[in-house]
Design a protein that fits this description.
The chain is α+β, with helices and mostly antiparallel strands. Helix content is about 50%, strand content about 20%.
Length: about 160
């Protein structure tokens, strides 16, 4: 009993340090888990197109796919493998799009059509939703329509 009376203050301080260390350790572990979360949104690229029905305007936007979180890795791999086929079909579809769809501020019809294109190319339901960002409707005169020049010319032998 004499021992407890003598060191009760030191024991109290040690107990407080242990409790604080446990709380700080718990908070740090939760924060580190949050910082390692993978995003389920993958950018499929920027698109610029001119519908064949209206040659006075050019439309530009960025397309993103929201992948099912349970199939994130598989979805990323399949989208990466099929990106050029998806891009080609998307561009063909966009050039032939109904002008009424372009006037819709929510772009529901375009999104649905692009979702069906992605589902057809992936052959399994990995994508939950399509997102359209940075939507621009520009007059043709304001757009630089120069073709991209190749980065490296091949020497003739």
């Amino acid at each position: 009993m004499n021992l407890i009376r003598r060191y009760w203050g030191a024991c109290l301080i040690v107990m407080m340090v242990i409790v604080h260390a446990a709380v700080i350790g718990y908070v740090r572990s939760r924060v580190s888990r949050l910082s390692n979360l993978d995003t389920t949104v993958i950018e499929l690229g920027s698109y610029r197109f001119q519908p064949v029905n209206d040659l006075s305007k050019v439309y530009h936007f960025k397309l993103h796919a929201v992948i099912d979180p349970t199939k994130l890795r598989r979805g990323e791999e399949r989208l990466h493998m099929m990106r050029l086929q998806i891009r080609e079909t998307t561009e063909q579809t966009l050039r032939q799009v109904d002008p009424k769809w372009l006037e819709d501020p929510t772009q529901n019809q375009i999104r649905d059509r692009l979702m069906s294109i992605v589902h057809n190319h992936l052959e399994e339901p990995l994508v939950q939703r399509m997102l359209i960002t940075d939507w621009l409707e520009l007059p043709v005169q304001s757009v630089d329509l120069k073709f991209d020049t190749p980065g490296k010319k091949i020497a003739l032998q």
